[in-house]
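Sample A.
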Amino acid sequence: MEEVAVADTILRGIGSREQRVARAHTIISDAGHRPAFERRRGRGAGINTAGRYEAESREAFDDGWDTEAELAPFQTHIQSEAARSILTRNTSPDLPFDRSVNAYRGCEHGCAYCYSRPSHANMGLSPGLDFESELFVKSNAATLLEREISKPGYECAPIAMGTNTDPYQPIERTQRVTRAMLEVLDAANHPVVITTKSALVLRDIDLLASMAERRLVRVHISVTSLDHKLSRALEPRASTPTRRLDAMRKLSAAGVPVSIGLAPIIPAVNDHEIEKIIDCGAAAGADFATYIMLRLPLEVAPIFKDWLLRHMPDRYNRVMSHVQTMRGGKDNSPQFHERMRGQSPYAWQIDRRFQMQKKKSGLYGRPEKLRRDLFVKPKGGGVQLALI
């Protein structure tokens, strides 16, 4: 019962106490309860609670009658969405870009720590399992992008692709929305920075190499861990660490500038790999490195805590102690200049280790700026022409 009490505390905020205790029993007995485990195999989240805007909260849990064996595994459902706009603007001092595009809502990679999960609540869906299984495709994204960069008052600046959901998540293989947007940017000589955890980016190496010749593109590949077992548990449907490093080698060999990102650094989970990840990235052709400290905004906190309890219960107190110390005693701090790195002696130590290894690996310079002067607005692009 002591374990259940601990789990109840960890899951605070998820339904009533009775629901939390029932959920705790399920987590603790998961190893011996195969149906519960099998149903969410390949998923990062273990819970699917309602989003913060819903009037009621419901969650399925094991009541001990073994009825979950009758439920089918969670399937990925894809819906087409006619978006009204595609360029998102921001004025955050923490971000090196002021505009971004996302081809999808939700992400099949299923990263347990993903800070984008709360956005699914805007769709009336759960930031938990729904985020990685109920996906929306912005099928008109390329058309909208061409239209927006064609507008008379548009000023060219690098567009960030993959800031909310991965542009090369598994469904991109068939949907090809990211490819279509890249073709628009390529034709207009428009700079773009791509962030991904997927080796699928190599499919578009023809476009990327061509754009790189004009200094119009940079690919930023995120590597959370070199441990395949840990990576599979944290980000179950993302490419393996080996394939990501291989993608970096091939992109670099094709002349495409590549950066490596440690995102996120999780205290007592992957922080011991900082030096090795940077070194491997440099060996694979990266010319720059960045990192983000673990962030747990809104619904991400209970989802990650649930993951931690299932996979590393012995490290729970240590991990969350570091997280809360960095965030002023809370699970998350949204303050500018703090949210990406945190503030504490531990956070300072991580930053020093990171900067020292960057210098040692030859990645201490700044990436070359992408060109803006080559931009040519698409003709037409859905913009109403002037009457003569």
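Sample B, a different protein:
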Amino acid sequence: MELVEAPTTETLRRAPAIPRAAAAASVLHESTRELARRFHGGDGTTGLFLVDLGPDGRLTLDVHARGCRVRIGGGRLRPEETTATLRTDAQTWLDIADGHLDGLRAFLDGRLSVSGDLHAAVRLTSLFDRPLNADTNVRTLRTRTSRSVEIASLAAGTGTPVVLLHGLAANLLSFLPTFDALAAHHEVHVLDLPGFGSSDKPLPRGNRYHPAWMARHVRRYLLERGLGQAHIIGNSMGGRIALELGLEHPEMVRSITGLCPAVAFDQYQPLRPLLRLTRPQWAAAAPVRLPLQAVERGMAELFHDPSVVPPQNLAAGAQDVVRMVRDRGYRLATVAAARHLGAEPSGGRNAYWTR
């Protein structure tokens, strides 16, 4: 294809004198090439990303440690050969590439759908320097909190810091709508807790994945990022970690919001001796395969009215679950964390409710 010179996206929006189809192809290619020139590597995310623009064609972004190569057209490239496939329209992609629209906002609004590695897709646009006139500010971070753990996170916004902690077997993706909404008025950080998402997953030996161990890593994250006192919001296991952080390090906490926080439930107490004497997490080393359609149905049942969730978002979430379960480190961390929560005493001198 011969490309018509079109240095800015305004060419497309000003009804150009050249044929519109040729102008559109040229603007898309040039805008994406400019995006690649702004590549800085970010958190080390790599992969092959297919951008499917429907009738306006395809683009591929080959992201590696030293740069980003852009090709116009995807040829016979199949979605399963890519790290992630992004489907949107040409105008939405131009807005994303030019920094006027964040890819996360487009995804949540239903203007962009993702198949494949949703974690990598969410991080994609943050791997590039923003233009001076950009309207987006989502950042991907990696923060070392110990010799064995580096925490992956997303950050956006300015103001009083807010930290979001996900639940057991989840990751930061479960908080994306909350993260996006709060970033309008706060500096928001959403974490992949150790063992989950894109964070490091050390073997579950000793006290690893206990709420107190997790809270120490959250505290170190706050210190390394210079956040000072923060509002801590936690769901389920994340709520229990938030409470532990408040109990042990109150100087780091402005407030705690627990969304169904995990606590020491009395009904689990008959299992405590068994959980304390055994190490069931090692059984999780065995491979596990989950049927995608069953996972998608299960996720839909989490909502009173599943119709409020865009179908493409449910599909992307289900794909992320299937991908995570294939990760041995994730399975070990999930069972280890569940064991620590179940083995926690509810009564006694040093028990949860006494504290």
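Observation for Sample B: The radius of gyration is 22 Å.
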